[in-house]
From TrEMBL:
It comes from the Bacteria. InterPro entries: ABC_transp_permease. This is Autoinducer 2 import system permease protein LsrD. It is a multi-pass membrane protein. It is found in: Cell membrane. The complex is composed of two ATP-binding proteins (LsrA), two transmembrane proteins (LsrC and LsrD) and a solute-binding protein (LsrB).
């Protein structure tokens, strides 16, 4: 009997329910429920509705960037300058307040600065063919450096009263404006990545950019748009964060790029590109947000949280590879 005849060939594919139960997203959902239960035992204040609402502030701003970052990583690129874009956009809004500009103008400036930074990254990566990791490491220093030059050790804190709504307002009961915006962004990016031709082009580029080019996909244009989206969502996060804090310092959002990338990779997006879902990123955002909020309730120092996030990022990348290596040897 030949090797082909001996091979076990399934007579039917797994049902959608079976595939769903075995998926990475199902595992994340179980982890999220587990973390929720542990937090409820760890602190008697956790199950308070307003505390749960406060917990969402731990991840909504970062998650909105993670949605755009997920698409960028699926396409095989990465943007490490997102936290610095927040600093620059926040600084630009702070400078605008000194000229007496109102809330609509500040919002427009925050979005435009984010778009401009995304366009700058996109032009260097998609236009000139430079590696995205090198370009965005450079712009990470460039954008935050400009903020330090403008502000020094000073801070802008004279924002108009109406501006506070974006980071401190509530649309209904304990549902904050930020959480509502996070939900809308999650649905919009899910549709864009998984229900449109643009999203399918992103997956094709991530798997094989040369084949995508020969298939008629405008690879450079898609990659440029993805950097624009990442810059735009960083601008949105800058508006929400600046509004919530009521002040701008050059160190604002320092180190957020690590948490955003961790959120994306924990959500099941391959760091090598070509695969991943937006549902996974949403669930990863909840998991990370509840873990950090639980640490906060237990008065765990911030440096311990950073160590945890770093180890989590390494573990999520290394453990699946170790499992595959062990399976091959077996």
């Amino acid at each position: 009997m030949s090797q082909l005849q001996r091979a076990a060939i399934p007579d039917r594919l797994n049902s959608p329910l079976a595939r769903g139960l075995k998926s990475w997203e199902a595992m994340l959902l179980v982890v999220a429920i587990g973390v929720f239960i542990l937090n409820s035992f760890a602190s008697p204040y956790f199950l308070n509705a307003w505390n749960l609402s406060d917990a969402t502030f731990n991840f909504t701003e970062k998650a909105m960037i993670a949605f755009a970052m997920a698409m960028l990583i699926v396409a095989g690129d990465i943007d490490l300058s997102v936290a610095s874009i927040i600093a620059l956009a926040s600084t630009a809004m702070g400078v605008a307040t000194t000229f007496g500009l109102g809330t609509p103008e500040l919002v427009a400036i925050g979005l435009l600065v984010g778009l401009a930074c995304g366009a700058f990254n996109g032009a260097l990566v998609a236009g000139m063919g430079l590696p995205s990791i090198v370009v965005t490491i450079g712009t990470m220093s460039l954008f935050r450096g400009i903020s330090y030059i403008v502000l020094g050790d000073q801070a802008f804190n004279q924002y108009p009263p109406g501006f506070a709504y974006f980071g401190q307002g509530y649309v209904w009961w304990v549902i904050s404006f930020e959480f509502a915006l996070f939900a809308v962004a999650a649905v919009a990016f899910w549709v864009l990545l998984q229900r449109t031709n643009f999203g399918r082009a992103v997956y094709v580029i991530g798997n094989n950019p040369t084949a995508a080019q020969f298939s008629g996909i405008r690879v450079a244009r898609v990659r440029f748009i993805l950097f624009l989206l990442t810059g735009l969502m960083s601008g949105v996060a800058a508006i929400c964060l600046t509004s919530r804090l009521g002040a701008t310092r050059p160190s604002i959002a320092y180190g957020w790029e690590l948490e955003v990338v961790t959120m994306v990779v924990l959500g099941g997006v391959s760091i090598l590109g070509g695969s991943g879902t937006m549902l996974g990123v949403v669930l990863a955002a909840f998991v990370l947000g509840m873990v950090t909020f639980g640490f906060g309730l237990l008065n765990v120092p911030g440096i311990v949280m950073s160590i945890f996030v770093g180890l989590l990022l390494i573990g999520v990348i290394a453990v699946p590879r170790m499992i595959r290596m062990i399976a091959k040897r077996g």
